[in-house]
Amino acid sequence: MKKVFATLLTATFLLTSCTAVNESTVSSVSETEISSSETTTTVESTALFEKADQYPVFKVVIKGSFLRSEKEYGENIIAGLQEGSEVIVLEEYGLFSLIYTQDGLIGYVDCNNIQPTGEYKDPDIDPSSAKISSRDDAAKALEMDSNVVLPDDNVLNQSYPVTLIRSTDSDYQQELLPVLLGKDYKKTADSDDQIQYESTDPSMPNRYVWITKSNGSLWFYDSMVTGERGGEYKAPSMNMTPEESLPVAQKKAAEILGEERVAVPSQSYLKHLHISYGDEATYKRATREDYVHMHIFERQTEKGINILDGGTKVRIGVNGISDLDIDCSKYEIKGSVSAKPISLDEALKAAGKICYNNSTKVFYAELVYSNRVSGNDDFNLSWYLVTNKGNYVVDCVLKTAVCDADTYG
After folding, report:
1. How far apart are CA 271 and CA 39, in angstroms?
2. How, if at all, do strands 338-339 and 217-222 pair?
3. Among positive and negative, which fits the CA dihedral 358, 361, 366, 369?
4. Containing domain of residue 65, as a range?
5. What is the pLDDT of residue 194?
6. Which percentage of the chain shows pLDDT scores above 90?
7. Residue 237 and residue 319: Cα distance in Å, rounded?
8. Are 10 and 126 found together in one domain?
9. Which in 124, 355, 358, 373 has the greatest CB count within 10 A?
10. pTM of this prediction?
11. Domains: count for the chain
């Protein structure tokens, strides 16, 4: 009878002491909230541990719930918790519950994000000496989809210069201005990081160019194509898929920039497009309804490695090209060090350290040169991983990963 009373008392305490404050309304989690601490914290033994032989089982009911290393919100996330998964509550602390997950992790969760199932279990740990898990305990290598596209072995077994250095090709920028704007154009703005030009050529009206000084990119925009001319015209739907508009975009862009600049369509971007729509039926319907398609054409090294963000983006509508985003940079080998890339397994583990979503899968992987990790003009040999939850870059030199999407959702 004493054991039953203690169990009922524990359940009542857990259900009544949690105030109705939802984690999502207290603090929004940004992409930078990643806990890197490896310190373990011992949870003090309490009367609850001593009286209960079994502990209540709860179910995670809120999507976007997180296991934390502390009883507070902030940069203390250990792992994401899958909606619908079961956890064992070991102790309750007001707004937070100390839990033990199915993956063997221990940490705190917003108590409003879990609900009791009515079941009780004896955890396979000693709660009185439970230690809070670390991010390293939770990190898992990203999983690959069964149909993942991977580089050939002969690509992976080669050695490559480890770093390329970027510099702006100002001469190429100036060569493009009359091609894009006509013989008559004017500078309309010049800020610390951007220069704006506008066409004054009557044969090429409503055309604009923006040059970004920091990275050498040039963005061309023709407002006559997309219909953004005061709202008097609505551009028609493409009525075709990106696969069908690709050769059209390639041909028209080659007439402006030359065939070399648009010779290599980006396979990783096409894969990303298909994944982002969820299924093929939605992909075909949505892209046919779009009034513009974007295509990316890669820029490659002599050994055939793509330079991420170093190519040309082409947006095309029924009436022609509306946008060109052109990388006007020169890339040279930095230093004399060459090496093989890190293994795919290493890349998957590095990406897993910043991924908090258990449903993330890799659909496409390739070697690239990228500065997304370095953040400067050093483009290091890297892995580019296209997933259903954003695209990861794993720097083979710095052994660090970044993602272009929220890695928590």
Report:
1. 40
2. unpaired
3. negative
4. 2-137
5. 96
6. 73
7. 10
8. yes
9. 355
10. 0.80
11. 3
